[in-house]
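hey m, so remember when u said the tokens were messed up on ur end? i reran from scratch. heres the input so u can diff it against urs
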Amino acid sequence: MWRTTEEPIVNRREFLATTAAIPAVTVSPSQAQTAATSGGAGDRAAWVAVMRRLADPVLTNLAAGTLKAKMPVEQTAGTDRRGVTHLEAIGRLLAGLAPWIELPVDATPEGQLRRDYAALARRAIARAVDPASPDYLNFTRERQPLVDAAFLAQGLLRAKTALRDALDPSVKAQLIAALESTRVIAPPFNNWLLFAATVEAALAALGAPWDRMRVDYALRQHDQWYKGDGLYGDGPTFHFDYYNSFVIHPMLVDVLAACREEMAAWKELDARVRERA
């Protein structure tokens, strides 16, 4: 059951356990474990169940304008993530969810679920970019919003039909304004260049004016930072962490998929980037 405003959710575990807005067959942890080892449709059902457990609290609350009120902010002592946590939640969620909701809608239970989640995601985006919404998100204060605006932008690039092209025109205009506003944040000389590039690629995909120089700079620098064996430096120096798999390869691929036809050099780079990926 949803809590009242007098009964706050105190941690993320409780938040993830809140009721789903879209009904579907429930899969228990034991059933999910069995399905995950059985393969086929059972394996897929288990993954969909995990996805729903992560997505429902974020999407249903943001679509209702209650994300800031109900989502707890958990953070390391001495930090303050209150201004960035909510954009982080929706941006990273949609970057991962987008390829699934972009699959064609069909008559299967999962196909109908994809249709419903795409609609829910669009309602959530509408709340996030509406200045009059209680869940209007921070796209400009501090540096972190550039990162999570880029993940939101990546979701748009990955779900052209389900998200980008199905947005209400007024929502689209507000989304463009929100993405443009991140330009006040200067990315450091590392993988963050790709966050700026991904935002610009999404603006191009939305039909808005975009900055080709930000895209070109990120692409050329990462090409120069390539170290071999599928590994890029995170800046001039190689860092042995997860950023190659989480940011660099995926964003290079997605930005070039959206923009490669704009310049012959980008089209040539696209082939190398895909081979490395």
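this time it looks ok to me. The first strand starts at residue 226 and ends at 228. if urs says something different then somethings off w ur setup not the seq
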